[in-house]
Design a protein that fits this description.
- This protein is α/β, with parallel strands linked by helices.
- It has 2 domains: about 50-190, Oxidized Rhodanese, domain 1, CATH 3.40.250; about 205-300, Oxidized Rhodanese, domain 1.
- It contains 12 helices and 10 strands.
- The chain has a 5-stranded parallel beta sheet.
- Helix 5 links the parallel strand 4 (about 120-125) and strand 5 (about 145-150).
- Helix 5 (about 130-140) packs across helix 11 (about 265-275).
- The longest helix has 29 residues, at about 1-30.
- It is globular and about 50 Å long.
- The chain starts with a helix and ends with a strand.
C-alpha cells in the first residue's frame, strides 16, 4: 500500500510538472511581442516660384509673342482658326469687340482656364495692349505656350474702321489643364487684385513727373538696346533675366518699368507682381516717347 501510495505521489508530481511546463510554454507564446514596423517620412521640396517664372521669361523668343501688324493678326486667326480672347471688362466688350472674340476679363483669366485651350492658337487683346501683355505673361507662366498678344488692341482696330460686333460669343468649357496649385494660386492672387489702373503708369509726362518726385525707373530692354541709349539713372534688367535679377529692384519706393514699345513693360509688371513685388507699375508707351517728352538720356 505504501509503495502504491508512493508511486501515486510520484505520478502526481510528474503530472504537475508537465502541467507547469505546458503553462510556462503557453505564457511565453502569448507574451511574445512583435517590433513595430519602421516608418519613413518623405518631405517634399517646396515649390520654387522663381524658377517657374524664370522658365517662361528666360526662353522668350524675339518678338516676345506680340503681333503688331493688323493684317498678320487677321491672317493668323483665319489660318489657324484661333480663339481670340478680349480681356477688357465686360462693359467694354459689350460696346464693341472683334467679331468672334470671347470675353474673359483679365481679373478672371486664372479662374477661366477651363475655357482656354492648350492645343490651338490663342490671341489675347485689350484696349491698347497693356492688359493683353499682362494676360499673355500670366498664362505663359502657367505653362501655356500657344498664346500671342495682338498688341495694337481695340483702339487700333476701331480706328481703322474694321468690322466689329456687339453680340457676345460664349467660350466653350473644355476643361482646365493640370497646374501646380501653388503656381496657380500665385498667378490668380496677382490677377484678381489688379486695380482699375491695371498697374499702368499713365502718360509719358506722368512718368517723368513721378521720376522727378522720387519714383525709380527700370529699363527692361536688352543690354544692346540699353547701350544704345537709356534714361539717366535707370538701371537695366533684361526681361528675360528678370526672375533671377528682381532682388536688385528696390522695394522701398515705387518703380516704373519701360521698354521699347510698352509690351515688355506690361509683361514685366505681371512677372514682378507674381514674384511678390507690389510696388511696380509699367509705362505702356515707347522709350522714344519718353525721350520726346524730355527725359534725360545717357547716349552711347
Amino acid at each position: 500500500m505504501r509503495r502504491l501510495h508512493r508511486v501515486s505521489l510520484i505520478g502526481l508530481v510528474l503530472v504537475l510538472a508537465m502541467i507547469a511546463a505546458a503553462c510556462s510554454s503557453d505564457t511565453e507564446e502569448t507574451t511574445t511581442t512583435t517590433a513595430a514596423p519602421e516608418t519613413t517620412t518623405t518631405t517634399e521640396a517646396p515649390f520654387d516660384l522663381v524658377a517657374a517664372v524664370d522658365e517662361y521669361l528666360s526662353t522668350l523668343p524675339d518678338g516676345f509673342y506680340a503681333v503688331a501688324d493688323m493684317q498678320a493678326f487677321k491672317d493668323g486667326v483665319a489660318a489657324s482658326e484661333a480663339l481670340v480672347i478680349d480681356v477688357r471688362e465686360t462693359s467694354e466688350y459689350e460696346e464693341g469687340h472683334i467679331p468672334g472674340a470671347v470675353n474673359i476679363p483679365i481679373r478672371t483669366v486664372a479662374q477661366s482656364l477651363d475655357k482656354i485651350p492648350t492645343d490651338r492658337q490663342v490671341y489675347v487683346y485689350c484696349r491698347t495692349g497693356f492688359r493683353a501683355a499682362e494676360s499673355l505673361t500670366a498664362l505663359g507662366i502657367l505653362g501655356y505656350d500657344n498664346i500671342l498678344s495682338y498688341k495694337p488692341g481695340w483702339v487700333a482696330w476701331s480706328d481703322a474702321g474694321e468690322e466689329f460686333s456687339t453680340e457676345a460669343t460664349e467660350a466653350p468649357v473644355i476643361g482646365a489643364p493640370d497646374i501646380e496649385p501653388a503656381l496657380l494660386e500665385a498667378v490668380n492672387a496677382y490677377l484678381e487684385a489688379i486695380p482699375d489702373s491695371y498697374y499702368s503708369a499713365g502718360s509719358a509726362d506722368k512718368v517723368l513727373e513721378a521720376a522727378a518726385a522720387g519714383t525709380a525707373l527700370l529699363d527692361v530692354r536688352t543690354a544692346g538696346e540699353y547701350a544704345d541709349g537709356h534714361i539717366e539713372d535707370a538701371p537695366n534688367i533684361d526681361l528675360r533675366s528678370l526672375a533671377l535679377g528682381f532682388e536688385a529692384i528696390p522695394t522701398d519706393k515705387n518703380v516704373i518699368d519701360y521698354c521699347g514699345s510698352g509690351h515688355r513693360a506690361g509683361m514685366s509688371v505681371a512677372a514682378l507682381h507674381i514674384l511678390g513685388l507690389d510696388n511696380i507699375t509699367g509705362y505702356g508707351g515707347s522709350y522714344q516717347s519718353l525721350v520726346d517728352a524730355g527725359a534725360a538720356v545717357v547716349a552711347p
